Amino acid sequence: MLNLIHCKAHGFEAILLKNSELAITVIPQLGAKVISIVSLKHNREWLAHDKQITLKPAKNNDFSEHDSGGWDECFPGISPQLYEHIPNKTHFSHDHGELWCQAWQITNTHISDEEIILSLQAEVFDSTFTFIRTFTLKKHSKRLLVDYHVKNNTTHNLPFVWSAHPIFAVEPEMRISINSKHMEFKVDEGLSRFYNVNSAFINWSECSTKVPPLNKVMSYNSGFASKVFSKHLNTGTYKDQNIIVKLVDDKAQQSCGFEFSSASISHLGLWFNYNGWSATGASAPFVLGIEPCIGNSDSLQHSIQSSEQGIVVKGQTKFWRLVFFVN
Q1: How confident is the model at residue 160 (pLDDT cuts 50, 70, 90)?
Q2: Cis omega (within 30 of 0) for bond into 80
Q3: How confident is the model at residue 40 (pLDDT cuts 50, 70, 90)?
């Protein structure tokens, strides 16, 4: 069973991709936000949706009004800042970038006996960049292939930060599993304050020894909020790693996660928000962000200073692939 269905969701035109294992719903008008990923075998919705926030077109480019959960894309930066890397031109990159706040164009839909393909495209900074995301869902597969193509339409090499921004619905005691025991994360203010950690980095293998363990979803009353980025995943002796990061519900014996190559996706971000932070003053959500990314910071400028930004060469297209899976 393979279906690609044009439908309505929350009052917007949407596209549903469906096989026997997965159902994925995308709203092109809302920054190509993925509003739902359901594991059909278990009838489980994996993405969070904050009912306090109504889905609507971007107004004043205020991400807090759009931050309802689901899966957005952040590019060419995450924190708001001037983009001054094109001679004689200055653009402003908004909070969480330039992709979530515009309607994307459907550039390809294809369905055969074996697979469904959906491509959507957005232009950034007056077509300085062309950003294309392609979903491929094969028959009976528990894996969604996500291919990214970013074209630089200028005559200058241009830097960027990119992050997938999926926000997952979680419950206490669910587990975060990462297959790379050597992965280290930069300690931010939230993590430092909560655990009284004074070091600049923490090894993921140490996280299970913390009280409470960082690799398990905390209690509802923990009030923990922290955003951490890994060190570069493709340096030293650990090049071309196959990275697998999973969100595991041991009680239900279910999981979902991402798989990617460190040769093309250089970092991993984790956003822990266990009723700990709200941008609007409303009740803080209880969610987890698992965010494969290129760049070691929300700030493009900070990533450039540490030489860990992405680069799209003039006139060329940069490609990377991410795989989402359920079990």
Answers
A1: very high
A2: no
A3: very high
Pull the structure tokens for residue 9. Answer: 């969701």
Strand 310-312, strand 158-160: pairing = antiparallel
Mention every residue, 6+ apart, whose C-beta is less than 8 A from residue 307: none
Cα 272 from Cα 231, distance rounded (Å): 18
Give the pairing type, strands 286-294 and 267-274: antiparallel
The pLDDT value given to residue 279:
83
Give me the domain span that covers residue 35.
3-165
Tokens of 172: 């206490």
pLDDT value at 34 more than 80? yes
Indicate whether 26 and 137 sit together in one domain: yes
- Number of structural domains (the chain) is 2
CB atoms within 10 A of CB 93: 22
Domain annotation covers residue 19: yes
Q: What is the 3-state secondary structure (H, E, C) of 91-128?
A: EEECCCCCCCCCCCEEEEEEECCCEEEEEEEEEECCCC
Q: Tell me: do 253 and 131 sit in the same domain.
A: no
Q: Which of 35, 76, 104, 274 is nearest to 163 (CA)?
A: 76
Question: Rounded to the nearest 5 degrees, what angle is found at the Cα of 89, between the Cα atoms of 85 and 93?
Answer: 65
- Token pair belonging to 70: 């689901």
Q: What is the pTM of this model?
A: 0.96
pLDDT tier, 74 (very low <50, low <70, confident <90, very high otherwise): very high
Bridge partners of 133?
A: 120, 148
Residue 37 C-beta-side C-alpha neighbours within 13 Å: 25
* Six-digit token string for 312: 């799209």
Average pLDDT score over residue span 28-57: 94
CA distance 325 to 327: 7
- Indicate the DSSP class of residue 30: G
